[in-house]
Structures
1.
Amino acid sequence: MKPLGVCVVRSAVGGDAARVLECARDVFATSRHTLTQADEFAVTEGQEREFLEGLVEHARAAFVVGVERDEPGATVIGIASLKQANLKRKLRHVVELGMGVRSTHRGRGVGTALLATLIDWAVAHPEIEIVTLGVYAENAAGITLYKSFGFEIYGRLPGGCKHDDGSRWEQLMMYRRVT
């Protein structure tokens, strides 16, 4: 558990499942900067609990939550994960970052706290060498955050995301070495 001023960041546990899902649903319903749409997200509480419990011993995956206070049942205000990007042995050293912050807490440093925790976690796991992520070119705040942690752009996919309204956004691929 790591208090970081704006929130407490800790590893998610099975008992967080309902609050994690509540946060995820808020993120998917209120942000145009996620790939998942609210109507596509159908994870049940039982599935989420099983997923979180399965991460406890995983060497190349982590899931953290940001909460305002370190107390049972506290509202989850941010979620972030690192997961093995590809199951092939030659790519086991690469993990992918995903994160989201509840709409009521964006712009308050929660994303910074989540990202700092996961970068520290990756550094502490020598089998992990590279963290990757995808971000929309329109997400200036996200790009600024990622660059502040040493991420660099390594690829672009013009029109890589097509929204329901027909608008197309460029996707950027970023990476950071942790070794």
2.
Amino acid sequence: MKSIFYLSITAAGKYIGAGLAVIGCAGAGAGIGIVFGALVIGISRNPLQEPKLFQLSLLGFALCEAMGLLSIMMAFLILYS
């Protein structure tokens, strides 16, 4: 009789792989925090450069967010393919 907790090796590997793929979201969150922390420091040091610094910070935010979304996409690809 099979247990209700029975998993095949391939299913267990999928869950482990998806969990490892989602670790990239933590890196994206840390990167976003660093970007906006640097923005606050940069504006406090040189307020006249605020428009340029804000544009660069939005670019950094977009790149960090894209990496987080790619890691979630990889986790879904691992789980459902």
3.
Amino acid sequence: MNNRFWFLAFIGVALALSACVNVKKSENGDNVDVKTPFGSVSVRTDQVKPEDTGLNVYPGATPIPKGSGHDDNKANVNISSPWGQLKVIALGYHSDDPPEKVLSWYRKDLQQKYGKLLECKGGNISFREGKRENNELTCESDKSDKDINFSSDTNTVELKTGSKDKQHIVAVKPEADGSKISLVYVQKHGEKDSI
């Protein structure tokens, strides 16, 4: 009888928790909201603007069209839990100019706007959880079991400004007909802060 009690208790808790999960999806699938007692995730792909990243668009660059063989060209993702929050805004562009010309323009633009600039080749964008010795950006990720890594290939060059908790990133990748440009803004906070 003891095993039957625990089985019924488990089913009851599972049903109660599943009743607390709320999922909303827009008709075209561009927006998704998931809310649970443990946190929420919000994804927006229809209302993302370059100014949301705090970065300028390279002159003459055009947005990468949705469904063009690339990942979706833009997203605004917000993750919230009792342990912290993460906001990532990303947009993709294409330029007919070669990567070095694009990078040269962004080096100047980012230094004028934000000051200190870090250049990384083929690195990872890493959001490390837990305590850090400092909040300074690096090219190498501090590998741990709790890292969330987005790898880029060895041909991509990333220009980063800010800190580990608030980053502006421009990633430039060569393409046969020019350059792919990714504009990314990352902001994260621990459990005592808010975005």
4.
Amino acid sequence: MKKSSLLLTLVFLGCSQPKKTVSTFKTEPLTQGFKSYWFDGTAEISSYRLTQSRYKEPRQGSAVLIYVTEDFWTDAQVKANQKNENTQTVLKLNRTKNFLTGIYPYSIMSSIFTRLEQPAPLVKATTSIQEWCGQTYLQLNRKEKIQIKSHSYFEGEADQNLTFKNGLTEDELWMWIRTQPNELPQGKIDLLPSFEFIRLNHLPIQWYPAETELIEQGPVKVYHITFPTLQRKLSIHFDAAPPYPILEWTEADLQNPTLTTRAQRIKTLKLPYWRLNNLGEEHYRDSLGLKPF
């Protein structure tokens, strides 16, 4: 009887298809083309024309994606001033949005750090949101487990410390697109939505079921992420050829498709932006099509 029960258990486990929950992919050595593009001492800055859906109305603004490689302390998980035996090279994304809702402005910034040539690339992610009602800040650190700290002005969200088993996050997939898009997960998975979406919609910080698909449209690929329970669909359009620049993205409310956020690329430049902080160097913003303050 015990042998029969064990056999049935093994058959059940063999037939079941668990959803992917761990953020790992097959690593390949960095190509010379990758090194030439990403290790040239500059950052890739792309500007986007933004239509942000907020409070059920479209808001005009701008978005910027800044991708850059840098040396990163593995223990403290902060940028290193110089490379040494205790640092690793990461690809960092700073994703910003700026738009107005009536009289008051929104400023949103997310930073995602992923290690290169690692099967589990995500190491850290942060998001901050500022507007005249208040501000929020979330930070994820990935070591043996995922630790998330959340601070918020809003009731029910303030000062949370959460620990989760390793899992896959929406924010890190923006990095997979730029490094190994063919390794993007497809099918049904559990996914932590972007911190931006979670906080703008005052949702619990947790993994949600998602359906993902990578399709090819000529010279462009589109990665779709659908959250059925959240009635949300994110579609990221990117060039099918290296270095896989992101051309546009949309966030659709599946209950009301008219409430769709869209970002369309204006310009991409390679610049050492951290040096361009002198009076007169604002003209680089003009080159990116960004309005002056």
